[in-house]
Amino acid sequence: MIARQREELVRRYESLLAAYQPALARMAASYEWAPHKREDLLQEILLAIWKALPKFRGDCSERTFMFRIAQNRCLTHIWQRGRDAQTADEPPDLPDPHSNPEAQVIALREQNRLQDAIRTLPIAYRQVLTLTLEDLSQAEIAAVLGITENNAAVRSNRARNALRKLLGGPR
Amino acid sequence: MVDQELKDWQATWQSAAETAAPAPPFDIRRHAARAGRRLTVRYAAGCLWAVALLAFSTVYAMRHPTLQWLLWAVAVWIATLVAVGFMIWNGRGLWTAASQSNAAYVELSRRRCLAELRAIRFGYALLLAELIVVTPWLLWNFFSKLGSPAFELPAHLTGFAVLMALTAGYLVWFTTYRRRKLRELELLAEFQRSVDEDDIA
Prior knowledge:
The structure holds two protein chains of two kinds.
Chain A: H1 2-29, H2 35-52, H3 62-81, H4 102-120, H5 123-133, H6 138-145, H7 149-167
Chain B: H1 2-14, H2 25-63, H3 67-90, H4 102-145, H5 153-200
Helix pairs in contact in B: 2-3, 3-4, 4-5
């Protein structure tokens, strides 16, 4: 009986990972510059999801549940780290021009530019923006962050304005 | 126009291929069990340490039944019981968040920070109490035996050195830890402010 429940849990976990791991990885990337620490953060997020999965009672969608845990884990990461800035010995990863065709280099540069800009936003804006970029609705964002829909919309607008300003700067 | 802008951002954002390998469920399960027990283990370790201290002081006082060692054992008992009582009292409400929302999470983190700061203040007080008791006792022990055949200078010097090293070590640890917790509280407050500003809007 217990073994069957565990199997079911593993199955649910794996299906969640299959669907959302890239999104979770992108979220981790928006909170951590250094690639190796980013991987650690992703592992912490996955661990937190695994721990919380048995308590999930279906009072919201699995996607909302998962992003909520991931956001909380990212906040913990920032608070534990005690700072939120790139350190000199941890440069952001840049595309390697020797191993990528030109188009890929340009695309990677755009991704890095967007990620770098998002990382510099205040945490509250970063949260709402990363969820918006993952196609979550205002209602879902509100549910993930524990705020009202109106609040989510206001914050989303401000976050987009802030991001627009950042991206409008010199490349 | 603006929607197109968002779509472009989404396309760029979602094309980022982050490829960290997921940990296999078995490993995660094992780590999850460990992480879940961490807080409990810390408290259990505190209790075990207290029991060990109580047992040691009792046995030592029974083997050396002089007024000096009986008083010492009583002091250890009082300090240990007060510390355990504080630890249990201080740990109330620190185990789980009221809900999974950001607000509940911020509140839990803030409570944990404040509890840690309380523990540091308690540590300072306990250290001071210990110094008030131990320093005169060491001095009395030193001067009462000075000049007698039982006087052993290295033993007395070791006692003073251990006391000074422990005091310095605790002070450095408390100061560093306190600074870290205050910084964490500032970050929490900053985050809370940004959330509140949006609430007002």
